[in-house]
Design brief:
The protein is built from two helices and five strands. The protein has 133 residues and is α+β, with helices and mostly antiparallel strands.
Amino acid sequence: MKKFFFTLFIPLLFLGCTPKTPKSNTPPYWIDNPQDHPEITGKKHGVGYSEEHAKGKRDQRISAIAAAIEEIARQKGVVVNSVYESLKTSGGTHSSQLHSVQTTNGETVEARIIRSWTNHYTKEIYILMVEEE
């Protein structure tokens, strides 16, 4: 009986003591090299970043989107005004979200999200956007 107990119990004890494997927290390649993303080639693009936000994830995401759009606007040589719109579109089996801002000279910058990533330890969010043409 003791042999049976040790044969069953000891391996279970060790399994319960093994550390949990954390989620991979390796940043995706597009954070440092967005131009290498296949959906970016030859287009204006921006990577927006935001730290954890006091008002929650929604405002953190809006902040990262605004930063990405501002980066796209800089590539176009325009300055972004504070007007922000979000339009959700869907076509068949695919849906995407289009974001636009008004610039100070009246031009509109429209961009869509390609990818997003959240650092599980620091809660920072990164969003890759490309200009809609």
